[in-house]
Specification:
Oligomer: single chain
Helix content: 40-55%
Shape: globular
């Protein structure tokens, strides 16, 4: 049987539909967006709202809809997931994410905390001491319902204790037990981030005890997570899958076999994988489309190998020094520029790729106006500033 070939043009059509970026594919609500994308990057809180708003048929209710889903209905949950990164997931996927990626990351995070704490306190703070403190802190959090670390410290003052991270090294610095412990408890799935302090752009969160979820066999959970992700991002290479999940390549290959993924050839000669029921090409009569996506958007950060949608010559302007992508302008499945906001809230953009001509120059302003209409007076500064965004915002 001949290997199916999926070229870059077809990949861009698949992206437009699966990622809800074509106007014809836009969603009705935030839960629909989250389920379509599997995970929304949550390291920068504003990313979640901007990513959802870009994909809604009517973005006017983006903020209210997401706050209701996250904090009232609890249909979406913000938690640590792949690569020790904070994401927003559909609540029904929490157990799958935790078993497939969280358990391994959590074990390393707790071991690192214990080692750093004991060494950095010269043995004054022990594992037994930490177990007692965290039990007390979790009980206080359960009583309060939601609380900031500052509020928890009132109930459990030992959370204020400090130790020296990297003791004796050039980078040594003081760490507080509270900040490290809450991070570990988050990765372990025992606490989740609740409402922010202030507006939806705030980076300061309250914490809450995580709702219970069933334990799943890790291999079963890995297969389910990969199946969902491949359904959204296929075709993808082994390298893409290893990077996105943070798994070992052996785990990636086992999961690919478990879901019956089918190898396909890609432009450039690489081998990608799709689900067996997604071999047929999608409809290609899409209307031309533009999108203004935020920094760390799940589409822009969906693959490790990005040449097919992000020309290499654009990366110096659009990425920071740590590999975080900033706000991007898209045209028909390719990144063609970047955008930012000035101090008065005006959305401004720059095209770095001239391909597309007049259609791009008309489509991008319309999408920028759509973004401005629901942002209103809110000023959003990305957590990770990139060269082009800083220049546009100045």
């Amino acid at each position: 049987m001949n290997t199916r070939h999926i070229g870059n043009d077809e990949r861009r059509v698949r992206l437009a539909l699966a990622h809800r970026l074509s106007p014809a594919a836009r969603a009705a609500g935030p839960e629909e967006v989250a389920r379509s994308l599997v995970a929304l990057h949550g390291t920068d809180p504003a990313t979640v709202y901007l990513a959802v708003g870009a994909r809604l048929a009517d973005p006017a209710g983006t903020v209210g809809g997401l706050e209701r889903a996250l904090y009232e209905d609890r249909t979406l949950v913000r938690m640590h997931g792949m690569r020790h990164t904070v994401f927003v997931f559909p609540a029904e996927l929490a157990a799958t994410v935790h078993a497939s990626t969280g358990l391994a990351v959590a074990a390393k995070a707790r071991a690192a905390l214990l080692k750093d704490m004991v060494v950095g306190s010269d043995g004054r703070l022990t594992p037994e001491w930490l177990a007692e403190v965290e039990e007390s802190a979790l009980a206080a959090l359960a009583r309060r319902g939601e609380a900031t670390v500052t509020e928890l410290v009132v109930d459990e003052p030992r959370l204020r204790e400090q130790f020296t991270y990297g003791k004796g090294r050039s980078y040594e610095s003081p760490h507080t037990v509270s900040s490290r412990l809450m991070r570990v408890l988050g990765v372990e799935g025992r606490v989740v981030r609740g409402r922010p302090l202030g507006s939806w752009t705030s980076t300061q969160f309250r914490w809450a005890v995580a709702p219970p979820h069933p334990g799943l066999p890790p291999a079963e959970a890995q297969s389910e997570l990969l199946r969902r992700w491949l359904g959204v991002c296929g075709p993808a290479t082994e390298g893409d899958l290893k990077w996105w999940t943070g798994w070992k390549v052996t785990d990636v290959r086992k999961a690919l076999a478990a879901v019956g993924a089918v190898p396909v050839s890609l432009d450039g000669g690489a081998t990608g994988y799709v689900l067996a029921d997604q071999l047929e090409p999608p409809a290609t009569d899409l209307e031309p489309w533009a999108a203004l996506l935020p920094g760390l958007d799940p589409t822009a950060m969906g693959w490790q190998e990005r040449d097919w949608y992000c020309p290499p010559e654009l990366r110096a302007a659009l990425f920071d020094g740590s590999g975080n992508i900033g706000p991007t302008v898209w045209w028909n499945g390719r990144i063609v520029g970047g955008w930012g906001q000035r101090a008065d809230g005006e959305v401004v953009w720059r095209l770095l790729d001239p391909s597309g001509g007049r259609a791009v120059r008309e489509g991008v302003p319309a999408e920028a106006a759509r973004l401005s209409s629901w942002l209103g007076s809110v000023r959003v500064a990305p957590r990770f500033r990139t060269p082009l965004e800083k220049e546009l915002a100045s």
